[in-house]
Amino acid sequence: MFTFPIPAVRKVVERGIADAAANGGFRNPYYGTRPGEGERPGLWLVGDKGVYIMSNGKLAEGSRALVVYSEQCHPNSDIDLWDYKRRHFGGDDGIEFIEAERVIPLFDRNMRATHLNVELTDTEIGLSLITR
Hints:
Elements: E1 2-5, H1 6-23, E2 42-48, E3 50-55, E4 67-69, H2 81-88, E5 94-99, H3 100-109, E6 115-120, E7 125-130
Antiparallel strand pairs: 1-6, 2-3, 2-5, 3-4, 6-7
């Protein structure tokens, strides 16, 4: 399971939308192997050195996407992030697209929630909210 503060998730989605408006659309998270899939408002859940979410709008030359690391799998954390990533994301690097239309209404219906939990299985991405 990976946890992200809701205000940070909202900023990632908003940044992706702003970048897309300014630079001609959304990036394809699947490197063009699935044309049109994931090229809409949302965020990318990325497993790399740690696990993070990132904005998905096309970027201006020299700019970078907004990145927010999960609380459990940040490169500067104390835990063994490689083992945690391998157990909960998989051993390989990868990207999963999560639609904005899936997360934003969830946040708007649960105004007291403070964090988004993302849980991956072999077949789906589970989303839940918690309050701290």
